[in-house]
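Dear colleague,

Thank you for sharing your sequence with our group. We've completed the structure prediction you requested, and as agreed, I am returning the results in plain text so they can be pasted directly into your records. Please verify that the sequence below matches your submission; if there's any discrepancy, let me know and we will rerun it promptly.
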Amino acid sequence: MTVTEYNQCVDSYSDALYRFILKHIKDEEAAKDIVQDTYEKVWRKVNDIESTNAKSYLFTAAHHTLVDYTRKAKKQGDYTEALENSLHHEKQYSDIKDVLNKALDRLPDIQKSVVLLRDYEGYDYSEIGKITNLSESQVKVYIFRARAFLKNYIGKAEVVI
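Please find the predicted structure tokens below.
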């Protein structure tokens, strides 16, 4: 990849990359740092990356950086066990986005990643598999489980609306 292609990659994908990371960690400053770290990793390998694979490589690097960040944050934070009763949603909301974000926060990291890559960013199963180092069937299973959890958590549409 040339410097011009790298700059074009930054211009084209920085917003999508930032949204993807921000959906995971809900911390704007940390998300900006992770995006910066990701572009630094890509810059170090700029001569090894084909410009046609830049987007996939970029999201793969971002995913790995995000995993490293969350592992480090978990080591530093509190460990609390989720009670079975806390995994269900009973309140009525008029803000569907708020309900969805709370539901997404309850998913395990890998399920959250694959759902966000599929439903928010529009990647197909094989691309998600490459980004997350999972087989295509594993990606489908994680997406199915995540969607089943989200359906159970959110409940009926009448409750949300």
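Summary note from our side: The first helix runs from residue 3 to 25.

Kind regards,
the structure core
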